[in-house]
Amino acid sequence: MLSDLILSFEQYPLFFYLTVLFVSLAVGSFLNVVILRFPKMLHQGWYNECREFLAEEVKDIPAKKQSEITLSKPSSTCPKCGHRIRFYENIPVVSWLALRGKCSQCKNQISIRYPIIETITALLSIIVATEYGVTLTTFFVLLLTWGLVALTMIDFDHMLLPDQITLPLLWLGLLININGLIIPLDQAVIGAAAGYMSLYSVFWLFKLVTGKEGMGHGDFKLVAVFGAWMGWQLLPLLILMASAVGAVVGIALMAFKGLKRGQAIAFGPYIAAAGWITLLWGQSIWDWYLGLLV
Phi, psi (5° rounding) for residue 102? Predict the structure, then answer.
């Protein structure tokens, strides 16, 4: 069955790309749920763990009343009128366009962010499919891409890179390279360690000099993810691109949005974008860059 499907993909490339398109649009819709709910689930869990740990100290303080949140419960509803979103109102991109970006009941505006995330997820997935073709590598890089979309948006919203997403991507990168799917295993292991230690060292040097924490620990782990997927050789390019874009965005925010000097901004999105680009085209970019220096 699977071999027949792969053969169909190889014989009919349009069928392959359409499959990737529709699957990734559905995944993008699911990622919207993850981005919205997963941080709330984490905060809820941390609150309960803290109350359990501080049982004696907080026994006289009533616990906050909160409904349990999961990725599947409660059902999606309009935040204004509580209208339960029907399945045909939740078709990626299409439903938002059909409803003109408004709730079908109260006409409250639905954020354009939802179809944008779905569209970006689909576009990135098509690029991956075009780059790697009908291969096992495409499947795994798609998983990485979808994870990066979730991490990017969660970090933008909450300055948080959850281990529950980052660490599985790290282990997946090591596992797929056991047989050298993308790079030899020794390069993957060294890359993961070098990726983590590169920012870890900068973090502690900065803290020793200034007494402040310059970045979050999730950033170390995200660079380690890319080290596990593409080895250590391209990590300097990744860090260079992420730092350059982060610096430009930071300056722009200070100039146009009133960001104060020393105020923290999320670095994970720039690592994710730079790492994804480096994974797909890093060697070509690196060769071009070195050519400019000769």
Answer: -135, 155
Copy the structure tokens of residue 285.
């970019």
Number of Cβ within a 10 Å radius of residue 68:
9
Sequence-separated (6 or more) residues with CB below 8 Å from residue 286: 234, 237
Q: Which amino acid is at 131?
A: E
Q: 33-36, long-range: CB within 8 Å, 24+ apart, which pairs?
A: 33/71, 33/76, 34/71, 34/150, 34/154, 35/117, 35/150, 35/153, 35/154, 35/157
Q: Are 235 and 225 in contact (CB under 8 A)?
A: no
| Mean pLDDT for back-to-back runs of 10 residues, the chain (294 residues) | 80 93 96 94 86 78 79 81 82 88 85 94 97 95 97 94 96 96 95 93 81 79 96 92 79 65 78 94 84 76
d(CA 188, CA 173): 8
- For residues 49 and 43, is the Cβ–Cβ distance under 8 A? no
Angle at which helices 235-256 and 185-210 cross, to 10°: 40
- What is the spatial distance between Cα 227 and Cα 158, in angstroms, rounded to a whole number? 25
Name, in order, each residue with C-beta under 8 angstroms of 116's C-beta and a sequence gap of 6 or more: none
Distance in Å from the first CA to the final CA of the chain: 52
